[in-house]
Amino acid sequence: MRLSVLIKHLEAFAPLNYQEDYDNSGLLIGEPEMEVHAALVALDCTEAIVDEAIEQNCNLIITHHPIVFKGLKKITGKTYVERVVLKAIKNNIALYAIHTNLDHVQHGVNGVIAKRLGLKNAKILSPKRALLKKLVTFCPVAQAEELRNALFAAGAGSIGNYSECSFNANGTGTFNGNEDTDPYVGERGLRHHEQEIRIETIFTVQDERKILLALLENHPYEEVAYDIYPLENKLDTVGAGMIGWLEEGIEGRAFLNLLKDRMDAVVIRHTRLLPKKIRKVAVCGGSGSFLLKEAIAAGADAFVTADFKYHEFFDADEKLVIADIGHFESEQFTSDLLIDIIQEKFPNFAIRLTEHNTNPINYFI
User: Fold this and answer.
1) Are the C-beta atoms of residues 126 and 288 closer than 8 Å to each other?
2) Binding residue per annotation — 327?
């Protein structure tokens, strides 16, 4: 199939505008309309991964971490990043990364961790703002229901577990069309009064084009009056980290054993175990120290993540237990998630999980 078809499905699950500003998710190498016949999935893209793709006859590599992250000024093969890029281009292999946008969706990277730990009622720990907009438009009473249906079908009106949400108020609209108009109601040259419904509904920013098309194609008026407002509301289903509850509280050492087993962790760096059971658990795949204050404020008993620096462990201040399981370990099941996402939509597409462990860290035990 065309690469653009696969990308559209992945970005419907984890839209690109959900990624952090510093990130570089999306298509890194390749043409959107190229034909892809098989894909290799890995956490990182290394030279060994590209070699494996060549051996397995895969012309697409999908990874969590983008190989091109800080930008390239030269591509001479001097660094491992440049060598990966050169080898992929020479062998006509497309590279696609789905990084912090996959971190930020409810059933993404952190959703996998929460599920593996058996957390109940898991929700986003730090929801993102500025991802919502409000549409306000005015429609004749008789056509209002048809217009609402079209807007809802385009994706408007979803709030948490509710859909088809809108606010409606009756009012009177006035207009006067000149000689170049062909008004749906009223007469040219005369001020017309029409009973209208003011329709308000919200939508996510990435759906704006679809919402406007639905509005303009289904509104009866020749000139459609509408307003779009940016909202600062948090979007509770999108953001960093997650927090949930274990079925029952367990002692600190038992929790660490559970964590080591469920996350296949070789070693866990942690703060001092506290004299209370652990039940409420915050998680963040990858480097999550920036969420420590949020985890404490949410009342977490433990915070599972990676890449804590020495002095940052002190910031726990005996309010919770920090459990640093390692960057690779916290995200290693992301590849399985990506395969599931793709196979659910394209069960006959050839997709393979890498046989290589791309963790650059080794442990001497």
Assistant:
1) no
2) yes
Superfamily of domain 3-102+333-353: NIF3 (NGG1p interacting factor 3)-like (3.40.1390.30)
331 is in an annotated binding site: yes
Tens digit of each residue's pLDDT (9 = 90 or more) over 118-139: 999 999 999 999 999 999 999 9
Amino acid symbol at 167 = F
* Residue 180 annotated as part of some ligand binding site: no
Question: Residue 21 annotated as binding?
Answer: no
Q: Is 262 helix (H, G, I), strand (E, B) or coil?
A: helix
Put residue 12 in one of left, alpha, beta given phi > 0 → left and psi -120 to 50 → alpha: alpha
- The 3-state DSSP composition of the chain as helix, strand, coil percent (nearest 5) reads 30, 30, 40
Is the separation of the CB atoms in 119 and 259 below 8 Å?
A: no
Residues spanned by CATH 3.40.1390.30 within the chain? 3-102+333-353, 109-126+239-324
The reply to whether 193 sits in an annotated binding site is: no
pLDDT in tens, 38-80: 999 999 999 999 999 999 999 999 999 999 998 899 999 999 9
DSSP, res 289: G
Spatial CB neighbours of 137, under 8 Å, sequence gap ≥ 6: 147, 198, 199, 215, 219, 224, 225, 226, 227
- Architecture of the domain whose range is 109-126+239-324: 3-Layer(aba) Sandwich (3.40)
Kindly report each contact of residues 274-278 with a partner whose C-beta sits within 8 Å and lies 24 or more positions away, as own/partner.
274/301, 274/318, 274/320, 274/321, 276/301, 277/249, 277/250, 277/251, 277/252, 277/301, 278/246, 278/249, 278/250, 278/251, 278/252, 278/302, 278/321
Nearest CA to 25 among 100, 93, 94, 80? 100
